[in-house]
Amino acid sequence: MIDFGLSLMASIIVIKTILEFWSHFGCFHRKKQTAIISFIISIILFDNFAQAIFGQIITDTISRSAINNPTDSAINNPKRSAINGHRLPFNILVVLPESESNNDNFGITMPKARPVIDISVMDAIRSGKIGADFLNFTYHDSKFSENANLAERFATLGVVTAYCSHRLDAILGFADSYSLATTSKITAAFGNGVPVITTAGMVSNLGDRQTYPFLTRMQGSYRQMADSMYKLIAYREEFEKDATSPPPSSSSSSSSSSDKSNRRSTSNSNSNSRLHSSIQNRLPVPESRLSLGYQNLVLMYHDKRRAINRPRLADGEVMVVESVSSHCYFTLYAIKNFFTEKSAYFKEAWKIQTPSLAFDEEIARIPGEIESWLKIVSELANGAFLSLFYFD
């Protein structure tokens, strides 16, 4: 701020001293001295006035610009706004393939996800939930649509580059489990850890909280499906106990039915209470009656890496296919682990090898080929089997 009094006093003293010095040698008369002093004072006052007015206008303009454009202000101003000691904006990296391909079973691509993210951020800003400078999104192509084997490399490169540029606070996306697993491992050691949120990653191994402490999966895992399959089809030792336990006596059931009929005939006003009591008195159905109780299971699934119909070389040797494991493989792998973990029978039966047959569904099949596969499956199950088919 400008001090007008001090500026004016200093100017008058300096000018008066100079004029007195010159008048001592007869250079100026008294009237001329007064006129010159008045003129110079006017110039000084106008200069101070102009500086004060236009300086205030510039300051107000900068202030209004900072309010209307908080993002630019946060970037140019080293004293940016912060939440819990964290400087804004929060930098979020989105890792997804640029286009669809046969490698991606979920169909999640950058062109599909980006408009949803943009609309969500705009809605959050307009509703006042977050400020305009709260989030900053960066998009990175994982190259998964081009080469599934190299997607892990490119995804990790994008994550490390963002972290080294101080633009990594959280990660969204991923369409393949390999890239997700690698980046979730390494980002747990970045600073205090970087959260990773994905709608993919249903491989059961990704549920290990010690290995992947900052990973959040929005759609659960294949282990949950394995639990359902176990309850639906698997044989369990406790079924033998259910079979030997005596059923409810006929006398108790008849007395229960007579009591219900008597209660029905008493009054219509008590119908709701009778219905409630009858539901409570209903015996639960034994779980052994709800499950199929299969013991001989064969897993048949699509997987290029282990396919029985892989291309062969000229000498008849099977060609080694450089491909990642399929979602079908990870699904049945979760089922196999869950069954052997929960059942002593399957743990013993599958101790050496789990009966399975993998094939490549993308390769053209010749007549009779599927029939030959089913014969193999039948032999694996000794003629009595339930084959679990899984196709991508």
TrEMBL record:
Lineage: superkingdom: Eukaryota
Alphabetized GO MF terms: peptide hormone binding; signaling receptor activity
Biased composition range(s): Low complexity: 250-278
Residues that span the membrane, as ranges: 6-23, 35-54
GO BP field: signal transduction
InterPro entries: ANP_Clearance_Receptor, Peripla_BP_I
Keywords: Membrane, Transmembrane, Transmembrane helix
Renumbered residue ranges of the record's region Disordered: 241-280
Identification of the protein by name: Bm8441
Organism, as annotated: Brugia malayi
